[in-house]
Design a protein that fits this description.
disordered N terminus, 4-stranded antiparallel sheet, alpha+beta, DNA-binding, homodimer, about 35% helix
Chain lengths: ~250, ~250
DNA sequence: CGCCACTTTGATCCATGTCAAATGCGGTGG
DNA sequence: CCACCGCATTTGACATGGATCAAAGTGGCG
């Protein structure tokens, strides 16, 4: 059973690595839609595959009405919201295979802006148009329930691990989470590309950017990681893991 | 259209205040099940209403397989999990109208233990038995999607507000969130009962219990709140709100 | 009445925020 | 190709919020 949407872009030269459809968070729904191949009978616009997004471009604007869920195919994104004092706060990063916008399902509008950190591509699922797709509601609903449930569980973990850990632990957990997500999606867990700025990381982790910088160099001096501009290589995963375990 | 399950317990004497069914998070599903009244044809055990839970009792144990979602009818609960270093961490409080266990929908097991902070009661929805209820899958699925979506949005807010606020702001936000939830459910937003210990609050907010204590007395000295053992009266909601706005 | 758990208050220390300056890096124009 | 500029990052010095340790106060319950 070849997954058609994964075939064409196999070796397009300098393109960044893509996550395989089979590893993508949207896959259950794509399956239900037969990947919206022409012969599937799914109308145009329900599932748009591989939409390119230039670096710096907004994929979603805060408070925009909800219409679609996106899956990151390649590249990366950051989610930014405004807190009560109206200052920007990074609330998440999206890597290949991640879903963007699931929280809009309930609220009817997006609760954050999403910006491409690099040249990226996404698959877009038009939720409003889903009923037109003629697919079994049950399948799609079940898939959505699963997705949302995973989202809840993930958020839960993140919250738990971020609050009341010190700066070193937060950074270690952050790096490990990137590595794990990368691995889950079938990419390398050792060579990571941190396309976000130190400020973005700091904002996300609730730290000062100076602290992020200091601790990253500390990790590097301990030979736990190797950091060259935005390329991160994990040398000693065990050491990072131990850090989170020690209280 | 009287809501049957709200009728009988109207004035049972010394019982704590109950949330009305119409204000309960489970209501959309209860509606779909006709409140599981005898004449509704819903089998026994799908929706158990008003199960009493004694103070200190476990409603859910960590890692227990998932079977049901609960709605708090009266009283209150705390959710406790263990972090990587195996120490206990409070990850949430449940007040009347709140749903417990929604994250199990996806993970198939509960990710925290839930303990009654006082004599409480819950409605129990047996998710496994739902298909037997003969209700339209669509209705129930839609309701579940809405519930999960709200959960995601809520978690999002909590995470955003907790990380990178100082202790005063966290406490202020905590009190305000209790007040708002109380109000949303149709109860008083000024008179709150904090049945959890200072340690529980501290654990939840990622602070030391001494800090919680100190700041609560500080708020009291400023005349923003009045605190008598576990009864909290909000005197100056505006002041608390301003605190979160200032960065 | 007295024990035990919880809470409050006080004193001290350290991690991390803040401010400031130096360094590095990419882009642009000459 | 180099000179210059602007921005991100790194590094240093210092201040402080909150953790930690310690001890006293408070209330519930046998």
């Amino acid at each position: 059973m070849p997954r058609a949407c994964c075939l064409p872009r196999q070796a397009t030269g300098s393109r960044p690595l893509e996550v395989a459809c089979s590893e993508c968070g949207l896959d259950p729904i794509c399956l239900a839609l037969d990947y919206a191949e022409p012969e599937s009978g799914v109308p145009e616009g329900v599932l748009d595959r591989r939409q390119p997004i230039p670096r710096g471009e907004l994929l979603i604007s805060l408070n925009q009405p909800f219409h679609a869920i996106y899956a990151v195919k390649s590249g990366s994104f950051k989610a930014v919201t405004r807190d009560l004092s109206n200052s920007e706060r990074v609330v998440g990063f999206f890597l290949p295979g991640d879903l963007i916008g699931t929280d809009g399902l309930a609220t009817e509008h997006y609760s954050y802006s999403v910006r491409a950190l690099e040249e990226s591509s996404v698959c877009r699922l038009d939720v409003d148009a889903l009923p037109l797709a003629g697919r079994s509601r049950d399948m799609i609903q079940d898939a959505l329930i699963t997705l949302l449930g995973q989202e809840v569980a993930m958020n839960h973990m993140v919250t738990t691990s971020l609050i009341q850990q010190n700066a070193e632990q937060r950074l270690a957990a952050f790096i490990l989470s990137l590595a794990r997500r990368s691995e889950i999606r079938g990419l390398s867990s050792q060579d990571l590309r941190l396309r976000m700025s130190r400020s973005d990381i700091a904002s996300y982790l609730g730290l000062a950017r100076e602290t992020v910088s200091r601790i990253l160099t500390r990790f590097q001096n301990l030979n736990w990681i190797r950091l060259r501009k935005h390329a991160l290589r994990v040398h000693d995963q065990k050491a990072l893991e131990q850090l989170s375990v020690l209280d």
